[in-house]
Design a protein that fits this description.
The structure is a homotetramer.
Chain A lengths: L6 H18 L3 H10 L9 H11 L18 H12 L4 H4 L6 H11 L2 H12 L4 E5 L16 E5 L2 E12 L6 E9 L10 E7 L5 E7 L11 E12 L10 H37 L1 E2 L2 E2 L6 H29 L5 H26 L1 H4 L5 H11 L6 H21 L15 H5 L4
Helix pairs in contact in A: 1-4, 4-8, 4-9, 6-7, 6-8, 8-9, 8-10, 8-12, 9-10, 10-12, 10-13
């Protein structure tokens, strides 16, 4: 057992850390002011391109991709601490070209895209010239149960026709967002995991319409944003279907594991920065003759936050290591564990930091409310906490049920082809 | 012991309930759409004046005032359940002319205002023709400790001169907001509770400047809003000082008790409505073949919310009853108790309701994010939870400390002239 | 709305309070030492009879009975604060002849007993000469679901024959325990609420055997204790069946409401005393140069305990008032609410008080571990918390289901005329 | 980063796991019955010696000692998972000769003992022929602050004289307990960390008296037990002072780190077994037509327990790794973190398992109440949670205070060279 990062991971960690702390965080205020002063809140302040350029020059680019053809080819566990560092600033992920959902979309195209899709969409995406969105969740149904999905992707001769309404399509507000990956029902008569397809849809295809942008706790997260998007008789050549019809679930599954690790690590970065801001504030501000941190239970709050963050980080790193060494199927339970635990932890720590800041914490004078929105949203996005707790419980109980019929497992990490129907349900988003 | 409301309170409760449920809530969407479609987000949709007119015609107007000259003269405990009903809709309080901080400002003018102040400011305020704000909290200091207050209200001949910066001045964004009550330091050499004054300041006085409006978790709560306001050499006649110099704390204290009850009861109304929305959603939506409410621990969440709300309501009603029957001093501990307990309870219930709604809960499609902002803000406004917990602890411990020197109390409700220095500190905002 | 107790209730409250504080609590140590020094841990130290005599002389006797023929005839809400005071000492309830399950058994006999049963068993019970137990829960089945009950009470000519095994029969260890009330299945073909009977069984009836006494968290709670009791072909005259065959559920239901109030109020008394002990300890002990209470978050713990206790008390008092004024059926939801909330609250406060005491808190040097066992047991006794949360949730959701067209849901706990149906299931123990 | 155990650690883990599951757990009932049936509850059922013999033969003996002269010489992180397995049964640690406080005492003698002490006491201790206790905590003072310690170890010529009263001396009830290590004040004028000495005291030395055995939540944990021990003019040769006078703190510090890891890992083992028992019970028992686990929020409870246990295990393993690779000083903060977090986690999981068992969980029919007592005690033993939270907070805040110019704050716990100073205070027990 060795908790030390590999030399290569440490090297990247030092570089990314330095970049975030010296290039990005000191310029957050400048970014915010640029954003506030520009006529269009959805425009991207030029600062971002400047920082992207600098990051790319330093080789801090597309670090999320395990594929060595497109970067350093770091493993999930090696990338994880970098994602944490990027999480410390809401503008950092884009700077390193490591922003969701571009990361997941890029992985999909690397693994399942056609050569043409790779050339036309993946290349500029990896170059940071365009951005993308992912259209899966639907407003009319409980999308935590993927079998509820109502949007359609129907083959019609050599075309595929899309209809339906999606929302919480993150990133679609960005001026550079040029394509989305759309998931829809293709063949309702097929096996439940073979019914859906993923389709690459250029944003300017006729019939695609952004109905509105959605706030998260009042924040639109410009210039990325979350859109409600309607698809009305959207016609595309059949080869827009990624990897062919019926492979939507398969693709979604592969996309999910690393994405959850990234989300969780970024949230841990937000929690760390929130704790740091809280500590600074509480040592600097004075009330009743003492620094705030020495009032009431504040020191215990700091300690509990430290413990919660450290436990969460180890939990996610262990899960990433499992993903790297044993594969996504073996890590299913752990992925649900961290998904259920980390956003809630981050929400609590950030809420505490807000409280330490008094009124300032409620406003947009600190990144805390943005962090809070991110953490709160992640308790729902990619499957609500409760669905993931259900997956964890099912895996825990399975061994005792099995025992009563026959064989038993020996510990939580076990099981290879154990994926049956229900497990999948909670893991599709 | 009788938990039944008086016939008069029941009658008002029925009327207000009916008004909220049939006149206001069904028009929330219309209000929201009007607000979204108007050029100026800070304009008041005409709907409001229409509803105000109707409420006033039904005698549902200024119900908060215990003073029978200005309405039915309901006691705090009689008004409390009405405040709960008004809390169910973010637009209801204004409709009944019962919105904070106008309520507290009106009480101040009823009790301490000069005849001229009453005529010029109180009359239109009670008529719903103008609105007002309260300027106490400051950005540069931990305002939970009122002795930190840095803004000044200095007498200069027959004038008073104000300087300083205030923020979280709620309601100042409203187009009808015509005056603020400003609290500042007048005589730093006086006894700590005789140093400050309250001054009535017309908003258009030279030197008063709204620097910016502040969001709460991304929401500006238009058309009320929370402002950061600078006062630069603002000169007013000395009779603008309410009740004369040095009485700021005295006035603040009297203002706080009923205000806390109102805030808490409105939050209970929000929590009730959040629970109602959660139950409806969770019985209507289906996932994995069941209504959401039958998945995981959702039923227990509903039960715990019911318990938490009912306990909170009884707690606040008991405190209101104490305030009515034994006075503000006797109720100090209980006021801090409910202040520390109710906003956090409401935040939890509302957060749960958001979770039940999935993505919709995060957006502004329901009143839930507005409720969340209100509850979250109240954990800081009017003294952070932690300061109030400190007051509660001090009162609890006092009897044991006293015992060790001499006399002891006999139970939490006791104590008449026990107010000493520190208690006041946490109770000034 | 009036939170003041009636003059009569206040008078009794003062008397009981004084008795507990001056007669009982100062003699707890003497009691403990007597108990430790006697050869038989299950003998009753003579002190108890002395105190009983004194209480009876002061008219502080059988206060729990609303029936004016047997005492002052206090309502449930009037008795509730007295039960709280009795809860402050583990030996107090017996002193006032108000100990469970004698209280519930006495109520059963008052309402349903035959004249002969009243004369032979009720009279000495109310005189404090004998004690009793209640045999309902069974070891082999989840007794929270009363339909699981397997013990039988079968009529055979003019006799009733009992078979089965019960446990957690509280009080059966007491040397004066002379009878039990046994609940068993009489007619499995009858309506589910007409199948069971209650039978009065003298403890010395052949076939009744105390198999063992059960500890609660290691404590046997001598001389009362909790027994596992077997009934093997126990034959009694048919008139031992209380109120006749098939009325077991009906009787159980009537017995439950007041009993829950009593339990909850005693727990509130324990929580109050625990908080008092905690405050004393934490102001007297010093570490790191400060009283313990000024270290870390201890003051917040004191404040939160105060809030939790006060909310719980109001909650139970309100429920008692409902029981008195609207009847048991109207109070079903509230009874489940307090049953689910109060023992857990008490457990938390007591655990906190233990922590404040350091090692001493873990030992039997204070009443805290006895209180902890009582609170912990009550989270299971009389229906586990979770069953009661289920009742609360069902009632909360019913209105929304009803709204949607009168039909019921299909959830497992859901009957059609469920009010009289399943609700009862969780309420039988 | 590699979360896999070393081959050697895996091999021991397999062996210890197999031994616990096949040799120990199946005989727990036999042990319990032997213990219940023997006249003296403090006698050791013969079963134990039999199991010890078998474990020793398999080389599963003294595994806790990193020193290769006395066993396999496993590192702390290698031993940690073995300690977890031993924690699954309350009788397992002794079977492997790995019971506290013998483990810590053995480590003290290995590192600091004289040759004579090693021969006379260490050898039989490591052979499992004798047992020992540790006397540090005192009843009269808050022992979390070691400077409160009042017992004395005064040099008088070539003798050392001990006086004072200790309690919570674990293991002193065991019939084989032959010596204790006593900590006392030697030179009150020395530097605070050079004042105390540790003295090896044969239990039969005149003046040593076990005043009583102390229950933990009603349980005496026979045959180990926790004693209150008085030392009255206990005279020993001066060479009984371990490593010479004034080195008490130094020795205590070295003893603490591994001990905390062991305690935490055993608690994790208890929590795992509690969860296993809970899952079995809840899949086997039925109520309301369903297995218990499918009622209410029970599945979420299972999931949250799984998450909490896994996070805690990673946390402790990481701390153990730090201890192994960077030393005790570097791991101080992490040791306090796990000490503050793991016992509370275990208490919660065990409490949940008790609830799943209904009445049976409260009794001694399962190991759960024993586990609960162990977890609850550990929230106080070896420094209360709150003291450790204080250490964690201080370390967290130090960097921000340092940043502000090297000066310290004025909070009570705060020295200047506080690293060696106050941190120690909370870590001495």
């Amino acid at each position: 057992m060795d908790f030390a990062h590999s030399p290569r991971a440490r090297e990247y960690l030092e570089k990314v850390t330095a970049f975030v702390e010296t290039e990005i965080i000191p310029r957050e205020r400048e970014y915010l002011e640029a954003q506030r002063s520009q006529a269009d809140r959805w425009a991207v302040p030029p600062l971002i391109e400047e920082l992207k350029q600098k990051a790319r020059e330093q080789g801090l680019w597309n670090l999320f991709l395990p594929d060595a053809r497109h970067g350093p080819g770091l493993g999930v566990a090696e990338y994880a601490p970098l994602a944490e560092r990027m999480g410390r600033s809401l503008i950092a992920p884009e700077v390193f070209n490591c922003n969701a959902p571009d990361t997941g979309n890029a992985e999909v195209l690397v693994h399942y895209g056609s050569d043409e899709q790779r050339e036309r969409w993946l290349a500029p995406l990896l170059a940071g010239r365009i951005r993308s969105a992912f259209c899966m969740t639907e407003p009319e149904v409980a999308s935590s149960d993927a079998t509820n999905m109502a949007a359609t992707a129907v083959l019609d001769g050599d075309e595929v026709v899309l209809n339906g309404r999606k929302w919480w399509s993150t990133g679609i507000g960005h001026p550079d967002c040029k394509f989305v990956i759309f998931m829809g029902l293709t063949d309702p008569t097929a096996h439940r995991y073979l019914r859906h397809s993923m389709v690459l849809v250029p944003v300017d295809t006729p019939g695609v319409r952004i109905e509105r942008m959605l706030p998260v706790l009042g924040q639109y997260d410009e210039p990325y944003g979350h859109g409600e998007v309607s698809f009305t008789d959207v016609r595309l050549p059949a080869d827009a279907v990624i990897a062919g019809p019926g492979r939507g679930f398969e693709i979604a599954q592969g996309r999910l594991g690393p994405g959850r690790i990234h989300h969780c690590m970024r949230l841990i970065g937000m929690a760390e920065r929130a704790l740091e801001l809280a500590c600074r504030r509480a040592t600097e501000r004075t009330a009743f003759g003492k620094p705030l941190v020495d009032l009431g239970g504040n020191r215990e709050r700091v300690a509990r936050a430290r413990i919660a963050i450290d436990q969460a980080r180890l939990h996610v790193l262990h899960t990433a290591w499992l993903l790297d060494t044993a594969g996504a199927a073996a890590a299913t339970g752990e992925l649900s564990q961290v998904k259920a635990a980390v956003p809630a932890m981050a929400q609590d720590v950030i809420d505490m930091a807000i409280q330490f800041h008094g009124g300032a914490g409620l406003s947009d004078d600190t990144p805390l409310t943005g962090f809070l929105a991110a953490a709160r949203a992640l308790r729902l996005a990619d499957g609500p906490d409760e669905v993931h707790l259900g997956v964890v419980a099912r895996r825990e109980l399975r061994r005792y049920r099995d025992e009563r019929g026959g064989r038993g497992g020996n510990n939580g990490n076990n099981g290879n082809n154990e994926n049956n129907g229900n497990d999948g349900q909670g893991e599709q988003r």
